[in-house]
Amino acid sequence: MRSEGILRFYLPFALFAVILVVFPLVASINLVNIGVYALIYALAAIGLSLLMGLAGQVSLGQAAFFAVGAYTHAILVTKYAVPGVLAALAAVLAAMLVALLVGLPLLRLRGHFLALATLGLGIIVTVVARELEITGGTSGIFGVPKPVINGRTYDTPSEFFWLLSPVILIALLLARNLVRSRTGRALGAVNDSEVAAECLGVNTFALRLRVFVLAAGYAGLAGVFYAYWLAVVSPEAAGFELSVSLLLMVILGGLGTVWGAITGSVIVQGLDEGMRALIPKIIPGATGEVQLLGFGIVLVLLIILLPGGLAQLWGMAKSHLHDRLAARRSAAEMAEPDQSAGVDDKVGPEPGAPAAAGSKPSLDGVLDHALIPERGSTVLRIRGLTKRYGGVVAVDDVDLDAQAGEILALIGPNGAGKTTCFNMITGVLVPTAGTIEIRGTRVEGRRPHIIAQLGATRTFQNLQTFASTTVLGNVAVARHLRSRAGLVRGMLSLARREERDIEHGARAAVAAMGLQDDADRPVKDLSFGRQRQVEVARALAMSPMLLLLDEPMAGLSGPERDELSALLRQTREAGITVVLVEHDVDAVMALADRVAVLDDGQLIAVGPPEEVRQDEAVIAAYLGTDDDAEDVLRQAAEEVRG
Amino acid sequence: MSDLLQLLFSGLAQGSIYGLVAIGFVAVFSVREIVNLAQGEYSALAGLSAISAVAAGVPLLLAILLVVPLVIGVSVIIERVCIEPVRRMTPLVSIILTLGVSTALKAAMLLIWGPQARGLPPFPGRDLVVAGISVRSQELWIIGIAVLVAVVVIWAYEHTLLGKAMRACAEQPVAARLVGISPRMATMIAFGIAGLVGAVAGVIGSPIYFSSWDYGLGLGLKGFVAATLGGLISLRVALFGGVVLGILENLVAGYIDSGYRDAVAFLVLLLVLLIRPQGLMLKASGARV
Amino acid sequence: MTGLQVEGLTAAYDRLQVLHGIDLEVAQGQIVAVIGANGVGKTTLLRSVSGLLRPRSGRVQLNGEEISSASAEQIARQGLAHVPENRLVFPSLSVDDNLSLGGWTTRKDGHYEERRTHALALFPRLADRINLSAGSLSGGEQQMLAMARALMAAPSVIVLDEPSLGLAPRLVGEIVGTLARLRDEQQLAVLLVEQNIRAAFRVADYVLVMDRGVVVAEGSPAELADDARVRAAYLGGDSTSSGSIVAPDPSPTTPATKNSQESR
Known about the structure:
The complex is a heterotrimer of chains A (642), B (289) and C (264).
Chain A: H1 6-26, H2 29-54, H3 62-79, H4 84-106, H5 111-131, E1 148-149, E2 152-153, H6 157-180, H7 182-192, H8 194-199, H9 204-230, H10 240-253, H11 258-282, H12 292-305, H13 309-335, H14 337-343, E3 378-389, E4 392-403, E5 407-411, H15 418-425, E6 433-438, E7 441-442, H16 448-453, E8 456-458, H17 471-477, H18 487-491, H19 496-512, H20 528-541, E9 546-550, H21 558-573, E10 577-581, H22 585-591, E11 594-599, E12 602-607, H23 609-614, H24 616-623, H25 626-641
Parallel strand pairs in A: 5-10, 5-11, 8-9, 9-10
Antiparallel strand pairs in A: 1-2, 3-4, 3-6, 6-7, 11-12
Helix pairs in contact in A: 1-6, 2-6, 2-9, 2-10, 2-11, 3-4, 3-5, 3-9, 4-9, 6-7, 7-17, 10-11, 10-12, 13-14, 17-19, 17-20, 19-20
Chain B: H1 2-32, H2 39-55, H3 60-83, H4 91-113, E1 128-130, E2 133-135, H5 137-159, H6 161-171, H7 173-178, H8 183-209, H9 215-229, H10 235-255, H11 261-275
Chain C: E1 4-13, E2 16-26, E3 30-35, H1 42-50, E4 57-62, E5 65-66, H2 72-77, E6 80-83, H3 95-102, H4 112-122, H5 124-128, H6 139-151, E7 157-161, H7 169-186, E8 189-194, H8 197-203, E9 206-211, E10 214-219, H9 221-224, H10 228-235, H11 258-263
Parallel strand pairs in C: 3-8, 3-9, 6-7, 7-8
Antiparallel strand pairs in C: 1-2, 1-4, 4-5, 9-10
Helix pairs in contact in C: 3-6
């Protein structure tokens, strides 16, 4: 959301620009030299920070793309006499192309496997660089000329530093824009809860691939400047040491924070130089990459003691300061009691909990894009739906339809297979057998984001809110499918109007759930019940045609339940199909047009609530049958006698 | 023909080392879902320590008997100091944590032993020529000891109560706690086993493959690749996977180009992960160990 | 003091408070059943008792010793066995190995063979399948194995989470019958969570009805049989006359039946 002020956004950039201009004027040549390396590695670290913080992918292969960029540039410049700028461009593209090619298979992997596979990628790039003739074998490529612009050669550290400065600033700005864009928001959501993001229409794989490629582009650009500055590119460029130090920069600065990547690389570069000088003094005869000792120890300490890095410290310091200021202000107000009465904004533990009691929730401006099918037409059609786990049948040959504009409740005892049904309908699970059609389109086994595109979304039994953002931020993700801006437009910040529309739609959905007073609070600070309401608001904001709610009433207070029921009735009036799983049988019976009962994976009854309530099979499913009881009694008697 | 046999035999020896390292990965991963990136370093540490001990006049056998418990101790200390205090262990945290440990260990070895690679003296025995292939006695030692240690570890997992308790922790941690098995104890033992197999791999391989501060990175990656063949949960498949990988590497080195030897593991990893990430050679029945 | 005593137990998952002060008592040789619809906190109650979830407040005493801050492993060692929801047998291990792990806490006391023989006598089907992997057993057999495994620790208190779930009526009978036997022959204290009310009523000496984290009714099965509130707790609506359960306010409107429990 664009709630940050323009000034607050650009002020750090201006400050940083001033530092970049002044630094070479006041620092020694040696320090400027370290600064050049810090800026070069910062480029690669920004990319890695986006990849790890935003996309949640652990990559130990960022050095590989760095090396691809460095080698491509060096080869084009020295062997084919390509002009520097063109070669640099080609080098960045080459790094991105390699990332695309390896990302397609690799990004299907998760966690440990991706990390190890990218580590292997680093090794393979080293091997290839060492073996090929064009890369100069083990000795590498020499004599990469320094950059020449308008006949002027940038070959002193200060000049090169100034040449790098605008590049860094632009790279930072683009990355910051990305974090705040539609793409950044979706990535953050994926990182918090992949399944929820997918059910809102976010294609996680495509997004991750894009960020992976983008991060490689950043690394490739860093490689270009490395080749320029060092004039030599050797197989060590893809070395493990570089991947470790890039990782350290990112963790130290704070995952996903763009400014952290810069800070981290400056500190790590300083640490590197310092330890290279210090360690041989303490331990005579130490040679080689001994500074890694410090890197390793700092990494371990950081992840145990300060997993959020410096950004975490910064946040703690800020909130501490904020508290101090607030304390001082309230002390001042205490001194003038007359004024404080009116200003006190602490209403109670749950500001606005009973949805501004009296003001009816309204769906105005929420369901604006929904494709409303003709009332009574079949929206969801399930035939023979079955899910088996080994020998256990969780859902057994279920046939069920849902019509446009009805509320259908799915109830049944524990373990009856209700949530499993939901998971199959929304693409979270692949059915063992059977078909699912949403308005005539077969969707069984498709990914959740495809099903979301067809207009179906859901909430979750176990909360799946996006914990790293606000209430409004959560709901805004649901507008993903209702907006278009891609990675590039996001980085260039060209989608302001669309962003305003997104915010508008999100605010309407937040208001519909009576959450407007909490809109800008972090969602994780809300109570369980409020978070559930956030999920419902989020699902509504997607403007769905078919809405699946998994236990939406759990954790809600009495009045909140009534409110939700009212809202769901409005949703039905708008022609939207609501399917809900609910344990609160009273609420279900009062709300639903039809009730379907699952027991032991089988559908045992479907019909209007009053009919289902009297159904013998339903009563037996909930209470146990008389047959059971007779059997139990007889058996027990036998056993006790025996 | 004898070329092929020669490559197969050398591959078998090298692969036994990978198999041992792979068992270390599986032991830890199956209990705690941590890929211990410091696994390779255990072997480098064991090799280098044994070399120093021998250089100081300690008999070879005694040096080995001293080094193995040392490395087990290091592994257990790493678990107590770095793994145990972490409350929320995500893949990201565990990777960064063990990468940090691995990096620090590497640098410490560089500080202590310097950058040169060196080897233990070979174990006693005479090199032979059998059916046209030269058999180095050290390779026979490697295969023999590696298989013995691997079989003992696997046997213990399958037939002792403690081993079964470890498996129970791996496959049903909640139920394991309910019958009184402590997951903390299981994790500690798993790291002990990881140290054991890593140390043995390090000392038996040192006379041929040498030991150096950065030996662990490549070895670790290859052990990990072998472990993925069994989905990181099967000890038997991990051992077997190591042997297969060793042989493949030698065939590539022999018939294509020795420079590409190190790329084989990565290609195998890609293949495994793309075809069947849950483990290429693991039966669908879910049989573990 | 023997058996299990729970006083004022509250428990929560993060921000969701699930238990709002539960009191109950199970004496040796007694079966207490807890019934109630989905999601009212029955499983959470068992998890808090056996140490899988640390209670937020309240006391849990096992044979007179406070265990509310002990770990699940410690509590198991002190003689409380928990047969969890969905059985959770060790699937790749054999039936025999599952049993021997059940005896993990008592592995050094020398009575292993006795207990194994006894457990197999209680569940003869397991004896026929002793070398099969637990994962290959049917649901009912897995339930028996989970119970046999729990008994291998020679517990004084056993808590079971929906042992009848997904089982054929015949097997439900078998399992419930075994519980009665354990109570009568070994004087075990049994805390049983069930959704199958009728099965629970036949075997229990005392029944608690839970709704939204509190006990809303308790008494002997005879006292509670045909109580509209029990039906209401499951199906809602029908018994608006008795009201107390369907009211949105979950404050405990428990009838004073505490005495009847103590007098028995």
